[in-house]
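lol forgot to send this yesterday, sorry. struct tokens for the thing we talked abt
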């Protein structure tokens, strides 16, 4: 499979107007969206350029609490993994000092 390079600009209205191109790409075809991005955003209206996010305080709190990082990972899971790996690293260093490893 060839490497995909995203295009930054797109020509519209018969090449007379140049604007930013939507940076979203399809999962299946790996093709970049053909629509222009919303002014001041990276994506078009179809891919969430018009979204303003949660507007109420409760909505922002729910969003912050449920914030997912790359699919199935929450911040809590990532922090637990970092602590576990740090503990393993300390144990490995101690094992080398005692010459177990």
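and heres what i got for the seq, position by position
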């Amino acid at each position: 499979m060839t490497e995909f390079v995203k295009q930054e600009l797109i020509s519209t209205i018969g090449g007379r107007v140049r604007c930013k191109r939507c940076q979203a790409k399809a999962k299946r075809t790996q093709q970049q969206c053909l629509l222009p991005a919303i002014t001041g955003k990276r994506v078009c209206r179809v891919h969430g350029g018009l979204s303003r996010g949660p507007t109420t305080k409760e909505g922002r709190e729910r969003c912050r609490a449920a914030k997912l990082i790359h699919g199935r990972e929450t911040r809590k899971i990532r922090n637990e993994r970092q602590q576990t790996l740090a503990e393993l690293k300390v144990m490995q260093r101690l094992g080398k000092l005692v010459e177990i490893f």
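The mean pLDDT is 84. anyway ping me if u want another try
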